[in-house]
């Protein structure tokens, strides 16, 4: 493969025609990379921001997807739901390309500036390919020192009117979700998932369910449960999670409610329940 070539060259010198965004509503779209979603908030021809930045070396594909929607107009900022490698991998290259700031919750700052590493993935939590591979995933995310700023404490998101962030720690200490009251749109990050991340099959054949956070990297299950209850209380009409397809409608609402009520049984791996 020509990964190194891509790293050195211009972001768009490869053919990324397959990298296209999918519109969810007039001003929200997403692009599904092989492992995780990146979300674009803003209608075409308007100001916009990017939420999450996929795996390392996806900058070319992400940029292609964004340019399909916005042309060469850069986003006002990149917001990260948390610092895991599958959400921050291409943040540095994109921020440098666009000359835009990156924001993350202050409790994630140490993890994205090289001061702390996340605990290693836990391959005992499920039987699928992803969890077997997860031990090989980097726990050290991209080093974003000099590019990344802590979000303000009041829940406001810089450059983004009408939205606020909700603290949904558990999966990681400073994990956030984004919510817009107006159309009850929830960008959940890894606080929940709409595919079963421990099953390799689900990566290729997504099932419409609401699941708990990806188990292999979830650090605090008590907090993770509170986070899901918080999200259920928001009563979202749309959910876009970090992994899986966007969901809306009655089934989604019932699924989220059920997950919040039965979090221990549904989300926490059996040997992790105390
Ligand atoms: Zn994560
Ligand atoms: Zn993730």
**Count of individual helical segments:** 10
Domain tally: 1
The ordered string of helix (H) and strand (E) elements is: HEEEEHEHHEHHEEEEEHHEEHH
Q: How big is the Rg? A: 17 Å
CATH class: Alpha Beta
List the ligand species.
zinc ion
Strand adjacency order, main sheet: 1-2-3-4-5-6-7
The main pleated sheet reads as: 7 strands, mixed
Nearest-integer average pLDDT: 88
What is the name of the CATH superfamily? Ribonuclease Z/Hydroxyacylglutathione hydrolase-like
In percent, how much strand structure appears in the residues? Answer: 15-25%
Question: What is the name of the CATH topology?
Answer: Metallo-beta-lactamase, Chain A
CATH architecture: 4-Layer Sandwich
In helices, the fraction of residues equals: 25-40%
| Count of strand segments | 13
The first-to-last residue Cα distance is 46 Å
Shape: globular
